[in-house]
Write a structure and sequence with these properties.
The protein is 10% helix and 58% strand. Strands 1, 2, 3, 4, 5, 6, 7, 8, 9, 10 and 11 form an 11-stranded antiparallel sheet that branches. Strand 2 and strand 3 form a beta hairpin. By secondary structure, it is mainly beta. The longest helix is centred in the first third of the chain and has 16 residues.
Amino acid sequence: MRNITLLFSLATLVVLGGCRVGEEDPGLSFKSRDKRIEGTWELTTGNMVIKNITTNQAPGSTGKSVTETTNSFKIIAPNAEYTYSQLVNGTKMGEDITQDIAFDILITVEEGGSYTNTFTGKAISAGGAFDDMESTSTGVWSWISNTKKKMGINFTNTSGAEGSEYINGEFFLKGLNDKEMILVREIRTVNTTTSSTAIQTIEDVVTMEFNFEKAE
């Protein structure tokens, strides 16, 4: 009877300690989230959308001019299908521009709280063209809420290396098991400037979902 009780207690601890947190976590895992996240992760698939909405109007006027540009990336690493589109006051401006570009991310998460992130591919320059980029950044990682659930992770780039913006900041862990990690993030900023002749509001929205597999 004592052996049966011990086995039951052990099974209960395993179930309670390894229950699902992210919506695509495993139902049962013998490893904690701390242990599962450690290692080297290779980007496999994902989606990223960078949207800019610029609104201009004169003070006291109800008339507005709204320009919306969208840069979207459908990722199948080490490449991505990139699409650019633009709307002005709801009217599509010309045909979408689509091209294949290089796009790859490698993250190594260390037990002691450090990480290394390498991006290889093309990045959009200030002028709208694509520049080749291979950049390695380093930093520290931590759980956003250091509770049992640990549903989010924060990557803080301390090296200042360019090209690390994709993996920098707070991410929701949609899924994390021994072989797969799904990072999700949405960033939204709104800035308004006002002068005697114009009011301009710029809204930037970036949404990301990156699927990684653990390297063997």
